[in-house]
Amino acid sequence: MNIDHHEIFQRMIDESLAGAISAESERSLREHLSTCAPCNEYLIASNRVIAGLSGFSFEVNPTLNARVLAALRLQADQIRQIRAHHPETVRQHKVQFKNWVAFAVALSMSFVGSALVYQMAERVAVPMHFDTAQVQAGVLVFWLLPSLCSALCLLAAPGEKRGFA
Amino acid sequence: MESDTQRIALGLRQGDVVVLEALVVQYQHRLVRYLVSLLGRRDGIDDIVQETWLRVLERGGSYDARSRFEPWLFRVARNIALDAMRKRPMLSLDSNEEGGAHSSPACGAPSPYMLAARTQDAERLARSLQTLEPVHREALVLRFQEDLSLQEISVIVGAPVSTVASRIYRGLATLRPQFDGETA
Known about the structure:
The structure holds two protein chains of two kinds.
Chain A: H1 3-18, H2 23-33, H3 37-53, H4 64-85, H5 87-125, H6 132-156
Chain B: H1 4-13, H2 17-39, H3 45-59, H4 69-87, H5 112-116, H6 120-131, H7 134-145, H8 150-157, H9 161-175
């Protein structure tokens, strides 16, 4: 068996140990290992590396757990106090989000509604002998702009007044 | 029936200190071991461990119960360790792959691996582990000590699965000569 062939199987041993080998390759590797001494030595050396890695024991500093737990309790208390004294902070965030959603919906409806009315104005103006351009300009001024203003007011208004909070 | 990860996720979302205390007791040893493998030293580890748990309390709501807790914990710890390393630019994880300096204990200080070796095989690996590139050492420890999958390691280190696998192969290749030619 040539060297390249061993290299292929040794690569497969690495893949097998790393958990990156297919079931088919694993079967092929097992068959090869049953007859190949060099690849078996390679596997044994690899397994000893892995076993060696488990031979280290890093002691945890005996005071570390107590220190960490004390810090956690302190921080948890601080978080609870902040929430207890400033419940409106959390609520304001929710209201702010709802304001933005309402604004986005109002804005979309303004544009869609204005586009429809704009199209209708063109059809209505001709049979009624109005100037199409003037009717469309009127739509823009008296429909679209008030709609946009309403949407902006919605964004600026506090949520409580609209019953969001 | 509520699974362990669901119980942990619920506790973290609620900032439940009792759940956190149980997690500290259960995972502290593994967290320290991972951070030593990442940084290659013991000094400063305790501060990073404490910072990690405080971050877990602060951002526990982002833990997803569909995955195991350990990878999420290690990723939090890794981010904090990297931040600490940025403040000490002499140390770097990825710089080694571009020819940078290896992370190592202070000059003259004993290697944490020498001090922690409890078996003959571990003693033989200690010196090589200290000089192994940190990203390779990290991948080996996560795979073979923490028993994480390549996908989980990939999430922790923020690298593709193929890169993680490659780091494991290279790490094994560096350490294997310690035992070449021996059958027992």
